[in-house]
TrEMBL record:
Protein name as annotated: Nickel import system permease protein NikB
Sequence intervals crossing the membrane: 12-29, 102-125, 137-157, 177-195, 229-256, 276-295
Organism listed in the record: Metabacillus lacus
Protein family per UniProt: Belongs to the binding-protein-dependent transport system permease family. OppBC subfamily.
Start and end residues of each ABC transmembrane type-1 domain: 98-299
InterPro entries documented for this protein: BPD_transp_1_N (IPR045621), MetI-like (IPR000515), MetI-like_sf (IPR035906), Nickel_NikB (IPR014156), Opp2B (IPR050045)
Molecular functions per Gene Ontology: nickel cation transmembrane transporter activity
Subunit record text: The complex is composed of two ATP-binding proteins (NikD and NikE), two transmembrane proteins (NikB and NikC) and a solute-binding protein (NikA).
GO CC annotation: plasma membrane
Length: 314
């Protein structure tokens, strides 16, 4: 198991290097000149002399390979450069906003897990019942409604009409409820559907019949065996969605004026703040890789057969 995890950790390095190369290439191939973007953010009229000076200062006049190697070295030191707008360290700006995004992500995950696990499990064991129809209806609604529209609906009903929660900003636990619900709603739809389908599939497996013929109590079969195995696809989806939540909560943060680094990225796009954009993309890649590694470790704990299967193909 330890060998398998070590191999998975080693594979992260070349994948991240490829992500850095793609990010570097896309920025260099884009029509936005970093030197011009820097001068535009400083409200300075660009001239050929100034552009040449800025390119030399940022190392943009060097060969692309040299620029890429220098970029990788700086990134390994968590040095993403300096923001064109604020003239502050990009990593410092992002790290100051990460706690707000983590708080929002954790809140949405807690809500999604607390709702989807019992709902999906009951829908699976009570197929075609009222709760099953309700779970499918909820999944359909959650997968259909855009996040920004759902956020505005929550604001209208719970803030404007009922005056239960603040409209925007941070400060208390009440500020966290609406944006967390907005982020959690699509996850509830996805996880409920995954768990329901997995429970139905596992109920038809021979081990369930054998356990029943041995006289094992139904609650033990459902809780200790069926749920433990059926939850595996949900955990896999959690690994993929964790990166989406951390880096893709851009719309929700904008709707609720949440001071996370997703909203910071949107501002950087409008300001053509190239170092911030590059730092955000690479940080997103790192979060995706680490979250999937963590999910693999959890999966191996739940089902040790995964590590044995993985070692057979390596």
């Amino acid at each position: 198991m330890g060998t398998y995890i070590l191999k998975r950790m080693i594979t992260i390095i070349p994948i991240f290097l490829i992500a850095a190369l793609l990010t570097f290439g896309m920025i260099r191939l884009s029509p936005v000149d970093p030197a011009e973007a820097y001068l535009a953010a400083a409200n300075i009229q660009p001239t050929e002399e100034l552009l040449a000076e800025i390119r030399k200062e940022f190392g943009l006049d060097q060969p692309l390979l040299v620029q890429y190697v220098n970029s990788v070295i700086q990134i390994s030191q968590l040095n993403f450069g300096v923001s064109y707008v604020t003239n502050k360290s990009v990593w410092g700006e992002i790290s100051s906003r990460i706690p707000a995004t983590i708080q929002l992500t954790a809140g949405s995950l807690i809500i999604a897990i607390l709702v989807s696990i019992p709902l999906g499990f009951l829908a699976g064991i009570k197929r075609n019942s009222g709760i099953d129809h309700f779970s499918r209806f909820l999944s359909f609604i959650g997968a259909s409604i855009p996040s920004f529209w759902l956020g505005y609906l929550f604001i209208y009903f719970f803030s404007v009409q009922l005056d239960l929660f603040p409209v925007q900003g941070t400060g208390t636990w009440k500020h966290l409820i609406l944006p967390s619900l907005t982020l959690a709603f699509p996850l509830i739809a996805l996880y409920t559907r995954l768990l329901r389908a997995s429970v139905i599939e596992n109920l038809q497996e021979p081990y369930v019949l054998f356990a029943r013929t041995r006289g094992v109590h139904e609650k033990v079969i459902m809780g200790k065996h069926v749920l433990r195995i059926a939850i595996s696809p949900m955990i896999t989806g959690l690994g993929m969605n964790l990166g989406n939540l951390m880096t893709g909560a851009v719309i929700v943060e904008a709707v609720f004026s949440w001071p996370g680094f997703g909203r910071y990225f949107i501002e950087a796009v409008f300001n053509r703040d190239v170092p911030v954009i590059q730092g955000y993309v690479l940080l997103a890649a790192g979060i995706f890789l680490i979250s999937n590694l963590l999910v693999d470790m959890i999966q191996m704990y739940i089902d040790p057969r995964i590590s044995r299967k993985g070692s057979q193909y390596q």
